Each structure stands twice: as structure tokens, then as C-alpha cells.
Amino acid sequence: MSEQQQQVFVIEKIYLKDLSLEIPNAPQVFAERESPKIDINLHNEARAIGDGVYEVVLTATVTAKLKDHTAFLVEAAQAGIFQIRNFQQQELDAVLGIICGNVLLPYLRETLSNVVIRGGFPPFFLDHLNFDALYQQRLQQQKQQQQQSGSPPAHQG
User: Fold this and answer.
1) Which residue ranges make up each domain of the chain?
2) Interval 100-113: pLDDT, tens
3) Do 95 and 9 meet the contact criterion of CB atoms below 8 Å apart?
């Protein structure tokens, strides 16, 4: 009988991969007294960079608008390198989509808040995200797409 190897999850490195801040209507935007409408777009991406080593990038784009003018636009890509070994494929997908996102989120939240404050705006705090729910939603969408196309899922390898 073969002995199952112990699962490994190690955070190798956490780093800020990309950051940009745009304030296209400065300095006039600072004279506005109303609160801006905030739109947040998040994207989580993972890729293998070695045997059992993955880069996961959690990217947030935050756009603040006052009426029809952009107050600010900030985009941050918080990344991490993770050693993940001895997981079944479905477990691996969940680790990359849920656990790694949960590790990166506090760093992304801090970066966004600091950049917005340094840009001259009141603090902005990114709410907590339920990566488990987002992962389950993505699986459900993939299942629906496969059912609609009537084709079996493509093997990815």
C-alpha cells in the first residue's frame, strides 16, 4: 500500500505586483463636498510557476465617481507565491481560489486604503470578501455553461 503524502501549504512570498492611482480631475475634485459613488471590480488569478509552486494575484480596481466625473481610480495587484503540494485537483483549485485569496486580502485592503489617503481622499476600506462563496459561484457558472453548450468539460492539463 502506498502511503499518502502529507499536504503542504507554505506562503513563500507576498508582494505588491502592480499599483496605480489616477486623479484625473485634480485639483477641482477636492472642492466637492458630496460622497463619491464607489465601484469595485475584483479579479483573482492563479498560475503555476514551478512544480507545486503557484503565483496568485488578487487585483482590485476601485473607481470613485462624483456625478459624471471620476474622483479617483486606483488599481492594485497584490500577489503571493505559494508552495502547494499533494492536493487533489479539486482541492488544489479550492486552495488557490479560497485560501490564497483570504491570505492576500488584508494586504490588498491596506494598500488600497493607504493609496487613497495619500491621494488626498478620506479613508477607503475594502469590505471583507467571502472567497468560499465566490468560488462556489464560479463553479456553478462553469457548470451552467457546460450544460448550455451540451459538451463535456474540457480537460485542462
Assistant:
1) 8-145
2) 999 999 999 999 99
3) yes
- Distance between CA atoms of residues 79 and 133, nearest Å: 21
> 16 near 111, Cβ under 8 Å?
yes
Cell of 30: 477636492
CB-based contacts of 15, cutoff 8 Å, min separation 6:
78, 79, 80
Angle, to 10 degrees, between the axis of helix 100-118 and the axis of helix 131-149?
110
Question: For residues 59 and 80, what is the distance between their CA atoms, to the nearest angstrom?
Answer: 12
Buried-exposed string 99-138: b where 16+ CB fall within 10 A, e elsewhere:
bbbebbbebbbebbeebbeebebeebebeebebeeebeee
- The model carries a pTM of 0.84
Locate 128 and state its grid cell. Answer: 471583507
Overall CATH class of domain 8-145:
alpha beta
